Amino acid sequence: MAKLFWLFIAIGLVIINLVYGQQHHFFNETEELFLLEAHEHAASFLEEGNGNPLLVGLTLVHNAAAKGAVCLDGTLPGYHLHRGYGSGADSWLVNLEGGGWCNNVRSCVYRKKTRRGSSLYMEKEIPFTGILSNKPEENPDFFNWNRAKLRYCDGGSFAGDGEDQDAELQFRGQRIWAAAMEDLISKGMHFANQALLSGCSAGGLATIIHCDEFRGLFPRTTKVKCLSDAGLFLDSIDISGERTLRNMYNGVVGMQEAQKNLPQICTNHLDPTSCFFPQNLIASVRTPLFLLNTAYDSWQIQSSLAPPSADPHGYWHECRLNHAKCTRPQIKFLQGFRTHMLNSIKDFSRSNKNGLFINSCFAHCQTERQDTWFSDNSPVIRNKVIALAVGDWYFDREGVKVIDCPYPCDNTCHHLVFS
């Protein structure tokens, strides 16, 4: 059934690409999150000669319940693990799944009836593509590593530790993280000679939050680094002059009691909500960290910069769905967002151990999609695709700190366009 499901999604995406062109992906606005995720899972179907991606089964963490490490609805958390071999047998890549947040009782109650809040609704097997692929032609540096994808079912970027008894909600993201890591350690991860923690979107934020904690799981001799994809969420002012994302994060942190698990180096001098924003965390992460982000992140434009709540007259409606329909003043506003992003990484970029790949695309998440991670027409900066940039940085082949020129100079982007 899983194969048929992703095949149908892939066929639909193929038709979309045939109609609208390979460089754009058109989704219905109300189905944005679902189709973004579906595209990530099905992307490998779109590559010539790759109609059969690796499908990896779900493993539930059975000893998690005793630790209170449960999803929003109280069910067991889980992950998908594909074993490495050969030169990668003792190397581990742990990927943290993304998928937004819930910031109030209503949104969390809704969420617990989906795969983002309950293992009852999780797919029994998922495709491993992009950075999770087991094919060297798709994933040249990590294809034969042990690769695990931790499912996201807490709604708080694996940082919360609280509950709402009246609403029957468990906010146990930190415990899920700890229980899953313990389970992977018992399966040989502790003996890794190389390890990489990665994640996309809310999983990219979680990667930043847990990066140093991940480092602490291994001996000093283990090479450990972290990769955050589309996780650089900014505390920005929206088009109405308000701070939509800060208001959302305030609800997430407060309701899920995440403040106790956020890095103390931040909470010692800033409020907890500020310490849920990566811009206030990245410079103090001790473990080598790579930031992969688009300068015009589609999710942040849609949900943080120009959400419908900030645009009652719909002036931004066309622009937020399709960058090609933005007016000059709107593009100028978005260029200001890019400037904010570049200013937020200045201190971070001074460290030789860190890496950067900031491309001027209207997109969100690029490591788990095969077309953006490593393919014939992947996005590039200075003639280097994302997979090779990450590999060069991880293996110390060369330092990688590349920032694209402003839109519209990059013609290699795989822009997301919504209809």
TrEMBL record:
Residues 1-21 form the signal peptide. It comes from Medicago truncatula (Barrel medic). GO terms for biological process: cell wall organization. Transmembrane segments: none annotated. One of its GO terms (cellular component) is plant-type cell wall. It is an enzyme of class 3 (hydrolase). InterPro entries: PAE/NOTUM (IPR004963). Hydrolyzes acetyl esters in homogalacturonan regions of pectin. In type I primary cell wall, galacturonic acid residues of pectin can be acetylated at the O-2 and O-3 positions. Decreasing the degree of acetylation of pectin gels in vitro alters their physical properties. Its EC number is 3.1.1.-. It comes from the Eukaryota. GO terms for molecular function: pectin acetylesterase activity. It holds the Pfam family PAE. Belongs to the pectinacetylesterase family. Keywords: Cell wall, Cell wall biogenesis/degradation, Hydrolase, Secreted, Signal. This is Pectin acetylesterase. Its main location: secreted. It is found in: Secreted, Cell wall. PANTHER family: NOTUM-RELATED, PECTIN ACETYLESTERASE 12.
